[in-house]
Amino acid sequence: MNIIAEISRWAIPLLLLLVPIVAYLRGVPVYESFVEGAEEGFKTGVRILPFLIGMLVAIRVFVDSGALNILSHWLRPLINMLGLDPDFAAIIPLAIMRPLSGSGALGVATQLINEYGPDSYIGRLASTLQGSTDTTFFVLTVYFGSVGIKKYRYALKLGLLADIIGLIVSVWIVTKVFY
Amino acid sequence: MVNLIWLLMLAIGIVVAALNGHIESVTTSAMKAAELGVEVAIELIGVMSLWLGLMRLAEEAGLVKGIARIFGPAIRRLFPSLKPDSKALGAIIMNLSANILGLGNAATPFGLKAMQELQKENPTPDVASPAMITFLALNTSCITLIPATIIGVRLKANSVNPTEIIGTTIVATGCAMFMAILVDYLIRRRRKL
């Protein structure tokens, strides 16, 4: 694990060092090319701005209103039906939040970890779930929006399917490994 | 579907806030979120300019082609519709590598770059191409070797073993990624895309 952590730590400095050196040696006007490429960053940032705002406003209004808690409450009987530990209900808000918003999900996960303890069942499950997928809904709207795609076809279903698989496997593997 | 989800989130949020007797929270939430959107985008512009600048250097030095030649054959199997000399391949590989290493800041610029390249090969500009959908399925379910943020949260909460969830996380996301790739393949085969 230490090796992987070291690679993550060194990856960016090494890229910043090696890419310009190799480019320079191969006769690329490094500074000018860099600036040319960087210009695209601005355009892309401006292009995704409306999509970011649109999504963030809807998500924030939904979460701040307390609707997330109500929705989680409604879903509780489902957990009894599936024969799961009643404790598991605590994880529902995170499971709903995960595909919607990265920072929102991190907030919920942090709260769960602090409330139940990092080494509790809920704490471990929240940690695993947080890392198990990315924010499907957000990535889709911003990525598609940035190039002007309006019809997503089966992209959302596919992304949400991966989220559900991530949730089911998280519950299974955490139970299996730690209990 | 996106339109409906967006509308539902907004409408349910407002109705619930009204029923809970704090309708004014809708106003603050909406304004704050809009501001946050600008903050995120501005931050992204900085990081994105840095990475896209570096990417241009790597491209002109022939490094992206080199990487695409090494990892391309495996990735290309997932994207049968890409052109043989597609420029998207390099950006896709860079995006996935950044995701795997947990470099979220670097992953987004490469991902958006990949989308732009994929869009150039898309015959229907307002409809998602199969290659785009495959890419986003990979992107959103991608394995992260070190979930650094959550390990940090666990560390702060005095976990006995903050990194013990690395293994379970990799298994969970690995299964999600595998299923996404499999189902995507089956859909494409059934629809003959």
UniProtKB/TrEMBL annotation, chain B:
Keyword Transmembrane: yes
Pfam family, one: Gate
Keyword Membrane: yes
Record field: transmembrane: 88-112, 133-153, 165-187
UniProt KW keywords: Membrane, Transmembrane, Transmembrane helix
Signal peptide start-end: none
Domain Nucleoside transporter/FeoB GTPase Gate span(s) in chain numbering: 42-151
Protein name in the entry: Spore maturation protein A
Organism: Desulfosporosinus hippei DSM 8344
